[in-house]
Amino acid sequence: MINALATEILKARRSRVPWVTAVAFTVAAAVGGLFMFILQDQYRARSLGLIGTKAALVGGEADWPTYFAFLAQTTAVGGMLVFGLVSVWLFGREFSQNTVKDLLALPTSRTTIVAAKFVVALAWCLILAAQLVLLGLLIGAVLALPGWSGEGAASGVAMIAATAVMTMLLTTPVALASSVGRGYLPGVGVMMAAVFCAQVVAALGYGQYFPWSVPALLSGLAGPDRVSPGLFGVLLVVLVGAAGVAATALWWRNADQDR
């Protein structure tokens, strides 16, 4: 397991994909800071050309609770795309670059290889979430946002962390699709379909029964009037994550690699 982890970490370190994902979360934090800057004084924002003369942003205050909520919501939606990209790359690259046979010829079990990939994916996504939190704290301090409290900050960080973990669990079927489809495109297709269906189901009011809508509901993206996912929704997310890991491991262990 240690050798498999070291191999996957080395692949990630020599790739540009980690930098791409880091830039994506940096932009997300910066966009949140821009919204807070505009909400602080919309007349100032108009004079600087940040919004149109007749435009106005509504539905929030420029304070720490609003900013933490924005970061959690970004993790719920943007995280599905970015974390999905991580899973697509970790699993799909072996087939797209024709390295899967070389990988499976090593004296390491296929299950161990899959486990190492999922461990790296989880650590990668948690690092991105930590980066988002640190950048958010820095930007919020620079903007001197009101409403800071230790309890509120802990609650906001916990919400972002919980959303990140659940979103990561929901990308395990993307890893399965990239494996079964033997490349990047099947995983990307499943990822995009999940994001689209999550938005539709949440808008219809049944998000608590659809696992991919649960992180958005938990972060408050669907609005305060939407039903909370509750324990049932969280349990669905855990079941999907476990099923995705198990199915991916079974496929790698039993599938014939004839290419």
Automatic annotation (TrEMBL):
Stretch forming the signal peptide: none
Positions of transmembrane segments: 19-39, 67-91, 112-145, 157-176, 188-210, 230-252
Keywords carried by this UniProt record: Membrane, Transmembrane, Transmembrane helix
Protein name (record): ABC transporter permease subunit
Source organism: Lentzea alba
